[in-house]
Amino acid sequence: MPPSYADRLLTWFDDHGRKHLPWQQPRTPYRVWVSEIMLQQTQVTVVVDYFTRFMTRFPSVESLASAQVDDVLSLWAGLGYYARGRNLHKAAQVLCEQHAGKLPADLAGLEALPGIGRSTAGAIVSMGFDQPAPILDGNVKRVLARHAGIDGWPGRSAVARQLWALAEDRLPSGRFADYSQASMDLGATVCTRHAPACHACPLNADCVAHRSHRTHELPAPKPKANRKRRRSQLWLIRNEQGHYLLERRPPVGIWGGLWSLPEADDATTPPLALVEPPRPGPVLVHELTHFTWELCPMSALARGAQAIADGDNMSWYAPDNLPGVPAPIRRLIEEDRAP
Ligand code: SF4
């Protein structure tokens, strides 16, 4: 009998898989969890430094649970999708209150925590506890859809159901942590979105997409929808010391709880008295999952040291010492400072 799908993947992993990522040394449930949350929507190469800083500051569930959410978000600044950081913090508190600071080793217990979906729960069970559980992240979806020749966009529930059933069916009888890592690694390094290296793939002998020359068609892309656009006016106000006025955003919604530039409802009424008429800066286009956000800055110099009305929620910050601000806001400030 030819080797199974899982056996071929595991043999390939022994020679080519990634074994030196920081969250694999050591591979604990907590470290797997944090890395999996960071890796949602973000490349491994970007996550490595964030993960290392995060673990230095929060080496345990307890240290994360007892931190201020602001400290968590400031280490998240630049990674985007900040709800992930807030949920991580909330889930750590639930773990301390209800699970003695330990991650549950079962899918249902994990999925009950904020921010943990089915695939992340599967990754924690398989890689954190070395127990059988399927995963289905973007890389794994691509490999399975191609190998089994599954048509349709994986975001459709009927297609997702088929893929989950396949992922479950193909689990090995042991080495669950390596198998999950191998599935992700193959998708990330061999069965890539564009130009997969089928000649180097351990699954090529019976891969439907490869044999029928359909790798470019599978998995099917998301059907096109009209993308929404939103436009926001932002005040880039600096004082005579070169400090910028920042405002803390409401706790929920985009960039919830982070510091940002004050948003203007009315471009003619700045939040402080200015010494010069504001000038419009270049528009920064920021792509989010659900819409395109056009950030339109109005740059201006404010008069002297003015009292700030909103106490805690507005403050001046030196550009070299900004608190947790989203990457596009940091970029707007840097561009405003550029000579
Ligand atoms: S043979 Fe090609 S398309 Fe099929 S799983 Fe391997 S890399 Fe992907």
Automatic annotation (TrEMBL):
Note describing how the cofactor binds: Binds 1 [4Fe-4S] cluster.
This protein's UniProt keywords: 4Fe-4S, DNA damage, DNA repair, Glycosidase, Hydrolase, Iron, Iron-sulfur, Metal-binding
Keyword Iron-sulfur: yes
Keyword Metal-binding: yes
Cofactor(s) recorded in Swiss-Prot or TrEMBL: [4Fe-4S] cluster
A Pfam family annotated for this UniProt entry: HhH-GPD
GO BP annotations, alphabetical order: base-excision repair; mismatch repair
GO molecular function, one term: metal ion binding
Domain HhH-GPD: 38-189
Recorded catalytic activity of this chain's protein: Hydrolyzes free adenine bases from 7,8-dihydro-8-oxoguanine:adenine mismatched double-stranded DNA, leaving an apurinic site
EC numbers, comma separated: 3.2.2.31
Record family assignment: Belongs to the Nth/MutY family.
Protein name, as recorded: Adenine DNA glycosylase
